[in-house]
Amino acid sequence: MRTWGNDNAKRSAKLKSNAEAGGQVDPLVMCDAPTKDQVATALNQLSEDMLSVGVAMEYLGGFNEGWKEKSAELIGASRIAKVWFDEI
Predict the structure, then answer these.
(1) Which of 35, 60, 73, 84 is the most buried (most CB within 10 A)?
(2) pTM of the entire structure?
(3) Which of the two residues, 60 and 42, has the higher pLDDT score?
């Protein structure tokens, strides 16, 4: 699971303040909102990982027809993630 923020002191202060006020913990307090650059970087990494796994599955697909089909789908999905990265 990806966490976007890394300011633990700020997050702890928010949680403590919220608890002292008798409120429920807001799930959005648990992680900082991602930046546009962080989302772009995550999409780029996702695309590269999907392509890498898809190519490996394609190689092994010569031995397993189901993997061959799924590899093509994964490689196609990696291209979509790359387009989204490029658009950001």
Answers:
(1) 84
(2) 0.65
(3) 42
